Amino acid sequence: MHTFCVKVLGFVLVLSVAGPCWAESKILSISASNGLTYTNNYAKLVGKAFGRYVGFSRYNIRLLRGPKSTKGNITNQIEMWLAREVTEHDLIVIFLAGHGFILENEYYFIPETKASLDNSKEVLIVANKGQFLSSSELKKMIRNINTRKKLLIIDSCHSGAFFQAREQHTTKLLP
After folding, report:
1. Four-residue CA torsion sign, 49, 161, 147, 62
2. 3-state secondary structure of 136
3. Which of 56, 62, 28, 30 is nearest to 43 (CA)?
């Protein structure tokens, strides 16, 4: 059993893993700034930390930052890269940093968007809801990744609501 402690921007993440290093494992690290200056380098720093301290190959670290962190690009990376290229023995990490909110009992991550976020009224949010990534959409994509070792890290407002399912039963990310 190997234990790794990674500290990034004041966050400490401890991973305990059995077996060899995670060189074939993959990380998708995303920071959507939308005016949040502190998220700009999060994706890069988290990717570097997993490469340097946990042993992820640099070829298996993908970063989406700023204008590249759109809903379409995030969905594409999860569905076309992670869901297709991992094996059941790989560890995948998805890191999201940016704005988040709750609408109609569901958590939404706000990828890079052209919608103005200066006015946080519900009308604006509802009008642009299709540009945002809902917890339901994320859960469905994560379930379709063929590995049992999945780590999702969300650094946004209201991220705790990600696991508050609409259904009465506990949300299950594993098949």
Report:
1. negative
2. helix
3. 30
Identity of the residue numbered 5: C
pLDDT, position 63: 87
Decide if 71 is inside a domain.
yes
DSSP 46: H
Per-residue tokens: 107: 């958590």
Closest by CA to 45, choosing from 68, 57, 63, 25, is 63
CATH of the domain at 133: 3.40.50.1460
- Tokens of residue 97, six digits: 């940093």
State CA 127 to chain mean position distance. Answer: 24
Residues 99, 156 contacting (CB under 8 angstroms): yes
pTM of the entire predicted model: 0.78
167 has a pLDDT exceeding 50: no
HSE value, Cβ hemisphere, 13 Å, CA-based, for 171: 18
What is the C-alpha to C-alpha distance for residues 124 and 150, in angstroms, rounded to an integer?
33
Domain membership flag for residue 171: no
pLDDT tens track for 108-128: 888 887 665 555 545 556 667
